[in-house]
Amino acid sequence: MTIAYDQSIAGDAETGRASTIERHIAQEKARARRKRMTNRLLAAGFGMFVLFLWWLFSALGLIHRLIIPPPGEVLSAFFRVASASYFWPNVMVTLSEIAAGFALGLASGVVFGVSVAMFESVRATIYPYLVALQAPPKIVLAPIFVTWFGFDEASKIAMAVVMSFFPMFLNTLTGLASVEPNAVKLMRSLTASRWQTFRYLLLPNALPTMMAGVKLCWTLAVLGVVVGEFVGASAGIGYLIHAFNFQLDISGVFVLILLLSIFTLVVYQLIENLEKKIIFWSGM
Amino acid sequence: MALDLAQLPKTEAQDSRHRALIQGSHLTKIYATSTGPLVALDDVSFDIREGEFVSLVGPSGCGKSTLLSLLGGLEERSEGTLTLNGQDLDRPRPDIGFMLQTAVLFPWRSVMENIRLPGAILGLDRKAQAERCQELLELVGLAGFGDRYPNELSGGMRQRVALARLLAHDPDVLLMDEPFGALDEFTRETMNLELLRIWSATGKTVVFVTHNIGEAVFLSDRVFVMTPRPGRLAGVVEIDLPRPRQTEMMREPRYSELVFDIRHMLGVD
Ligand SMILES: Nc1ncnc2c1ncn2[C@@H]1O[C@H](COP(=O)(O)OP(=O)(O)O)[C@@H](O)[C@H]1O
Ligand SMILES: [Mg+2]
């Protein structure tokens, strides 16, 4: 034993343990996979159950069809709405508003977050105002935006930007600031420049927090556009929902709400997949 | 030893080996804290010779890390002078490397990419760095682990990566702040022996912080004994144990004697 220990000066008992570690990691991964499957089945089962209750309550006449229309009616409304000539143009309006609002909210949040984090003078100048601007509930801006930017896309995009900017800004700022002091010390000892410290340490270190911000930014951009369309619009899904509701076409409203939710969720999932790729190390 | 050397005709090489590389005199560091000024380091003077292995020992709070930060040019001193090769040492330099108790590896960079970090920052030749870093990976016993990520490694392995990164840009001076302090005793001993091997092969100057007296005696040419409140250099102990050092040396009376001398200086007994 003593001899073996003396000879292990260059090696390490731990490196020899690599294969064990590898097997252990494989087992852990398999367990995680099984757990994910179980969770999915649970969620799917619960969904089916709720759908069944919905159908049952409607069939028994326990819920009025003007409050919650039965599943079959919503399905036929889907075909009716989706085949209508007005449908796609309105969908495209909303989608382009969301895309523009999300992109602008995200970009401005990142730009301001990085500037405030990296430049003391920028922080001193604008940070108090950015925080103060957060105070009013942003929905109150919707009517003003219609007055300023009109009934078309611009007022909805503005609403989406205002809603989605702040979480992206704050998460960028927080992510860049939450760095281990020893890591900064290491970079300083290596005579790294500000830009190098940003590129090699601060930015990758901030990515997990920033990606959480991107997800918030996305859902809020959708919310902003729909709110904008409710308040004053001549086209878009929000506008259609408003119109259908007015005509007591509740199943039509349901179809639009469901489609909008599915779209939001699908993109959300895409962002999460991207997140897993970008911050691959957090899952290890 | 000193006598023998004096009688020998001095050669150029011996001269440079025993020349003072780093000189600190009347170094003082005062931190402004919420409870008033805190004297972390009080009027400390010393020489560190080229190629020497120096340890700083003392209880926590005696200013070891503060002194090391000053040596690394990472903190501004309040008073005194500090020079390396006669040049004012007031900012980080690429020929001084720094290693801490935690490995501080970047989880988004593979083991090899972490070791390549100093080269990337200093803009060193990529091809030469690729070769050198591969050698260093083997030197620290992690050949074949270059593509792994830090989250997949144990504490001991991470510290090995940090050691390889420390050497990546070939700094002349290694400042090490309790580098193996968080490791278990066995791994720490292995790492200490490895560090000695690297040190004797490369002739680098090492300043090693520890609060383990035995470790300091085992590794060093000289031990700087520090006492707290305020942080002072209580004395310098020459370690006249022969080299290369082996673990069996810890059984020798001279080893125990030195350890007890230092304990006494620290007022532990
Ligand atoms: N950045 C700092 N600000 C204020 N006080 C500090 C700072 N760094 C260290 N100190 C204080 O200086 C003294 C010496 O600290 P340090 O050099 O870390 O001691 P050691 O490494 O020997 O444990 C301690 O009292 C510590 O609280
Ligand atoms: Mg310390």
Automatic annotation (TrEMBL), chain A:
Membrane-spanning ranges: 41-63, 98-119, 126-151, 157-179, 216-241, 253-271
Superkingdom field: Bacteria
Membrane topology: Multi-pass membrane protein
Protein name: ABC transporter permease
Main location: membrane
Family per similarity comment: Belongs to the binding-protein-dependent transport system permease family.
Location in or out of the cell: Cell membrane
PANTHER family hit by this protein: ABC TRANSPORTER PERMEASE PROTEIN HI_0355-RELATED, ALKANE SULFONATE ABC TRANSPORTER-RELATED, MEMBRANE SUBUNIT
Range of residues in the leader sequence: none
Domain ABC transmembrane type-1 positions: 87-271
Record keywords, A-Z: Cell membrane, Membrane, Transmembrane, Transmembrane helix, Transport
UniProtKB/TrEMBL annotation, chain B:
Keywords of this entry: ATP-binding, Nucleotide-binding, Transport
Sequence ranges assigned to domain ABC transporter in this UniProt record: 22-253
GO MF annotations, alphabetized: ATP binding
Top-level division of the source organism's lineage: Bacteria
Pfam families recorded: ABC_tran
Family per record: Belongs to the ABC transporter superfamily.
Entry protein name: ABC transporter ATP-binding protein
Top-level taxonomy: Bacteria, Pseudomonadati, Pseudomonadota, Alphaproteobacteria, Hyphomicrobiales
